[in-house]
């Protein structure tokens, strides 16, 4: 079924305003990781709450220990209608390195049909398209076929530290029949996608302490363990030559997805060469015996995200560094858990640490992996709504990234979670020149407006 004509005419008539309003939000540098942007992050929360009020929701900005949570509501649907919770985040990643942006990160610019700005696709554009979809219903008809809660958080990019507690404390007000999230990507342009899995995360900081201060590498070198070498040796034990993680017990809880899931993955239009070109790496590499999509979606990883030690300035400085540090993150798959991986990581590092240094490990973030059972009326409605907006049947895809709150929603609110994202491959999320396709921004609105109609008529 195509999108209802009254909604379609609303979208057609208000397209340029929908773009201009998103641009206002994109101009606010709500970088959650940086305290110098705290006032901007608070301003983005207020802006989002105000945008909800303008279209007829009631909205409240809830302070937390960190950045505020915005909750908007509309509860006037006919008796028996479903309650749906839409989640998104208004915070963004830092924009650095600034010199690599072709237009300023907080001055949205359209080039080749794409909106370039930090947060355009992750996640402001995808959050705001939901607000526009709700607006279409309330403007064209004065009502919605479902009850809605829109929850926008400001700490997703720093690990959603305070959100589980917030959901727990407000579980009664947030009670719902379904959760809908747009914070991911479509598998290919024009190909709407429903996510069936996300990886989890266990993020560590590993510090190696050697001598009390940097030492002359001639006077002391050879007689003291070098922390940089010790760290390199520790990190080098984490994989074998086949890309298999060598931490004892690491794979114990990894669930096999079965042949059916693997077969379904092979039907997706995916090309290794194209994917390699997207990365710019000279060749692809990963765990032996698995395809690229299997490596990305159903296998865990252990990656160095950052390394720091010794002298890295111009020229040579003969120094034996006092310490070394690595940021190491593991992407997890069902049924691994960050707590168990924490234990295994500590035991492994303790076992392989060479004598003469002290190692400390801290876990910075944890998030559970997630895999959906895509049966039921919510997913059928989503398939029809996406088909209506994109004129093409959606595919089921997996995802290598993490949205830690998904597991919390399911656990605390006991509602199924639908992940429908409108990003695209190559969108540069977290990188310079992030973009969101304008077409997807506008079609995403239509798909979500159609979803409310589908869920209204199926209840
Ligand atoms: N929107 C992403 C998650 C994502 C990435 C979904 C790619 C689908 C495809 C989210 O904003 C994000 O970046 N999550 C972090 C979580 C971390 C900060 C705890 C991630 O995956 O690194
Ligand atoms: Mn995101
Ligand atoms: Mn992100």
Question: Which small-molecule species are bound to the chains here?
Answer: ligand BES, manganese (II) ion
> Number of helix segments?
13
Measured by DSSP, the beta-strand proportion falls in: 15-25%
Largest sheet: 6 strands, mixed
Helicity level: 25-40%
**Mean of pLDDT:** 97
Q: Radius of gyration, Cα only, in angstroms?
A: 24 Å
Number of strands: 19
Shape call: globular
User: Order of strands side by side in the largest beta sheet?
Assistant: 1-2-6-3-7-18
End-to-end span in angstroms? Answer: 17 Å
Secondary-structure content class: alpha+beta
Low-confidence residue ranges: none
Structure description:
This protein is of the alpha+beta class. It has helices at 5-13, 15-26, 38-54, 120-141, 163-169, 227-236, 258-266, 272-279, 292-297, 338-352, 377-390, 405-413, 438-458, and strands spanning 58-62, 69-74, 83-89, 109-111, 114-116, 147-153, 178-181, 193-195, 197-198, 200-209, 215-216, 303-309, 319-320, 323-332, 358-367, 370-371, 395-397, 417-419, 435-437. Strands 1-2-6-3-7-18 form a 6-stranded mixed β-sheet, with helices on both faces. Strands 12-14-10-15 form a 4-stranded antiparallel β-sheet, with helices on one face. A hairpin with a 6-residue loop joins strand 1 (58-62) and strand 2. The model has no long low-confidence stretch (mean pLDDT 97). One manganese (II) ion binds at residues 93, 122, 157, 429-430.
